[in-house]
Design a protein that fits this description.
With 797 residues, the protein is α+β, with helices and mostly antiparallel strands. It has twelve helices and 46 strands. A hairpin with a 5-residue loop joins β36 and β37. The longest helix has 21 residues.
Length: 797
């Protein structure tokens, strides 16, 4: 009871800090911050902020910034978000605080607040245009669902080997799994890190992976486990080399494993159902060991350890103990001859080793000077006697953020974790195809949900097909609660292939809009039709492992058919398919019409050929007529005379057409599209000026064509469908589009078309023909495409 009273008295005294006491606490907090003891610093800075009046404006800003940064460093993202929000709400920050916008954005993303994170990244981008993270993360967070499109292919399960301590960075060894932890199988006393009394990390071993049991499948937000709530022990952030000074890159160091604040009340206890054991007493020392990698035959290990070997503890020139890579060989069941790799240094950290299948390539992470950002990935080659000089994997892999935890599968593909490539928050897992030399990336891909989450996901191992594997994540409770997960893939590796089909004039190279593309999926027996946009493009998401046929048809051009297959593709990056269309020979040559012309009649909506259509061809020279009936393939042919123009009409029950015209110079087309109820007739769209409903002169010319069509089919009824772009509010755009439709209908009435045959509807911004939706910046030409009125056929006889 006396201790309780003393504690309460101390807390009361701290709540009424005097200015002198506040300054004393500030010095203590800054001392802990400079020593990188961020957990202690957060407690002290929080106390200092209880008396803000005791601080100058500059001191108050500095305290808030250091508090926020300290929470960031111990991965307490909820408190980091709160602290950065308070810092930024106080007004614009001096230039030296510009990174606070980045850290705020990262905290928001780690807490799943992607829309707010997007805005914070946009602000950061205006201040640091040279940092691509501002633009790449902003783009992703406009539609983060792109990282969920493959979620159905994977099942992620929580392993019961997990304890209240961290377990992470699994690696295959023999028939089992080696991983990193601070306990869970070893006996006796462990040396603790003196600053905050927490255990160091060791390598542990599950001899048979078949003994690993899993719990219920884990979702993005985590999963239920057998762990029950309990008090968390105070201690340092496990797995972080936070006693390492900032390097020339001003970076996090290799020792960062995804841990965070273990004193935030999120601890829990669990009973292991799968026992693990200390991997090797000869490898595990009183300091950090792990992660590790093993040679193909299991006789050699390369592992991460503090700069401590053969009883010697070494420091950098500024008194910091770094991480190094060591190797050992197994003799008679014992790991012996522990030696450090030649490219280690007392001045920077190296760690997270990964060997290639043939043991000749070693990938690892380091914050050595000369990198792109925090920690970069490097490659060293075995020359038969020693490991060679490391080579940076370059900007395709490495970013201004941190890349770490590499792993190379049986096919030579690289997996790694990064917070610099756009992801869901914290560390995300990425996949990269490498060139045959192993030092360049062909493509980098975010693995998406459910393997990735808004928390830290890292340390993945898997087979060459990514059918099954293991990884570590702190998604369950955040903080230092790093746990092991198993994943299995039941669906296709790449279920969705983004494809852009581009149609253009083969001679002029100009895009052909309003081109109908018929898509046949041979595997599924499905067909659909799409129309190209103003750039001659359609955008698709195709099923994996399927064959497709694309048929492009455009009035005045010869059809083009091209095949495309998603089988055997090694990534899910967007593809492009070009489909040039050519005009008939006489149009290209400009030498006039040939003596015999063959045309085709088809349904406008489906592009299917129409048989039994009565086609009438009339000569402008002598008004002579030729009547032909289309065959099963929808084709017909007629004779021509030099120097004559021809008009082509077609009739079929319950269908209509705008007809066609062939000129004596060879221009025009004999192909005829016929419309039916529900179709939008193929005339040029009627456009409007921004925020206007007035009928422009170019629109009036198009409406006159509608008048002619209505006179040609006196019982036909139509709907005038008006649309707006996405600027202004949805409610306002609804009213504006309705006014535009009414103006267009009024124009037709003035030309003698009965009001009973006209319907006017405004759709506002709900049906854009391109990407220009809310939140998307577009050119004026793109916006113009959406300010339009379309003509839909309601009835035709």
């Amino acid at each position: 009871m006396g201790m309780i009273r003393l504690t309460l008295f101390c807390l009361l005294a701290l709540s009424v800090l005097t200015p002198a006491r506040a300054q004393s606490l500030l010095k203590q907090a800054d001392r802990q911050f400079d020593r990188l003891s961020y957990m202690s610093a957060t407690d002290l800075y929080e106390q200092v902020l209880k008396t803000p009046a005791a601080l100058t404006e500059g001191e108050l800003r500095a305290v808030r910034a250091k508090l926020a940064y300290s929470y960031r460093q111990i991965r307490d993202t909820p408190n980091a978000e709160k602290a950065y929000r308070e810092l930024l709400s106080a007004g614009d920050l001096p230039v030296e605080y510009a990174d606070s916008y980045l850290y705020y954005a990262q905290a928001l993303a780690a807490n799943g607040k992607y829309r707010e994170a997007q805005e914070a990244y946009e602000t950061y981008n205006t201040l640091h245009k040279e940092d691509p993270r501002g633009s790449t993360f902003t783009k992703l967070y406009r539609d983060v669902s792109v990282l969920s499109k493959n979620a159905g292919s994977y099942k992620v399960s929580f392993l019961d080997v997990n304890t209240t301590k961290p377990e992470f960075s699994p690696i295959y060894y023999r028939n089992g799994l080696v991983f990193v932890s601070s306990g869970g199988g070893g006996g006796g006393m462990k040396r603790v890190f003196g600053w905050n009394n927490s255990p160091f990390l060791d390598l542990f071993y599950v001899p048979e992976v078949t003994a690993l049991k899993d719990n219920a499948p884990a979702s993005l937000g985590g999963t239920r486990s057998k762990k029950t709530a309990g008090p968390a022990k105070a201690g340092r952030t496990l797995g972080r080399d936070d006693y390492t000074a900032r390097t020339a890159n001003d970076s996090r160091t290799v020792g960062f494993y995804g841990g965070t604040n273990v004193t935030s009340g999120l601890g829990y206890y669990d009973t292991q159902t799968t026992e693990s054991e200390v991997f090797s007493k000869t490898l595990n020392s009183k300091y950090h060991e792990g992660p590790a990698t093993f040679s193909r035959d299991g006789s050699r290990v390369i592992f991460t350890r503090n700069n401590y070997n053969n009883g010697k503890y070494r420091q950098s020139s500024d008194g910091i103990n770094k991480l190094k890579l060591y190797t050992a060989t197994q003799t008679s069941g014992t790991w012996e001859d522990v030696t450090e790799l030649p490219f280690n240094s007392n001045e920077y950290s190296t760690g997270h080793p990964a060997l290639s299948k043939d043991d000749n390539l070693l990938y690892f992470a380091s914050d050595m000077p000369g990198g792109f950002g925090g920690t970069d990935l490097y490659l060293s080659r075995w020359d038969g006697k020693k490991w060679g000089t490391p080579v940076n994997l370059g900007p395709e892999i490495n970013t201004k953020g941190s890349e770490m935890f590499p792993y190379v599968d049986q096919k030579g593909n690289l997996y790694f974790s990064s917070d610099g490539h756009a992801g869901l928050g914290g560390l995300d897992l990425f996949f990269a195809q490498l060139t045959n030399t192993g030092d360049k990336a062909v493509a980098v891909q975010n693995l998406g949900e459910p393997i990735n989450s808004s928390k830290d996901d890292f340390g993945l191992v898997t087979d060459g097909e990514r059918k099954m594997g293991y990884f570590s994540s702190n998604r369950k409770n955040g903080g230092a609660d790093d746990d092991l997960y198993r994943f299995t893939r039941d669906g296709p590796l790449y279920p969705c292939r983004e494809l852009i089909v581009n149609v253009y004039d083969a001679q002029t190279k100009m895009p052909l809009n309003n081109t109908l593309i018929q898509i046949d999926n041979n595997e599924a027996g499905e067909k659909k039709q799409l129309t190209t946009d103003g750039d001659g493009n359609i955008r698709l998401c195709l099923d994996g492992e399927s064959d497709f046929k694309f048929l492009a048809t455009h009035t005045g051009y010869t059809d083009n058919q091209i095949g495309f297959s998603t089988k055997g593709l090694a990534d899910d990056k967007p593809s492009r398919l070009d489909m040039p269309l050519t005009k008939p020979v006489w149009e290209v040559a400009g030498t006039g019409l040939p003596p015999v012309i063959r045309g085709r009649v088809f349904a406008q909506k489906t592009r299917h050929p129409l048989a039994g259509v009565n086609v009438v061809v009339t000569s402008d020279c002598d008004d002579s007529r030729q009547e032909i009936t289309t065959g099963p393939d929808g084709t017909y042919q007629f004779n021509t005379q030099p120097g004559c123009n021809y008009t082509v009409e077609a009739t079929k029950d319950n269908m209509g057409t705008t007809g066609s015209r062939l000129n004596k110079d060879g221009t025009g087309s004999p192909d005829i599209a016929m419309f039916a109820k529900g179709d939008v007739i193929k005339i040029d769209n009627i456009y409007y000026d921004l925020d206007k409903a007035d009928i422009r002169s170019d629109a009036a010319a198009e409406l006159d064509k509608v008048v002619e069509l209505m006179q040609k089919y006196p019982t036909m009824k139509i709907e005038m469908r008006s649309h707006t772009d996405s600027r202004a509010s949805a409610a306002y755009n609804k009213i504006l589009s309705a006014n535009r439709a009414k103006r267009a209908a009024a124009y037709l009435k003035a030309k003698g078309i009965s009001a009973k045959r006209l319907k006017a509807t405004g759709y506002g911004e709900t049906l854009p023909v391109n990407k220009c939706k809310d939140g998307v910046d577009c050119t004026e030409e793109d916006y113009q495409q959406n300010r339009r009125t379309e003509i839909k056929i309601l009835t035709v006889e």
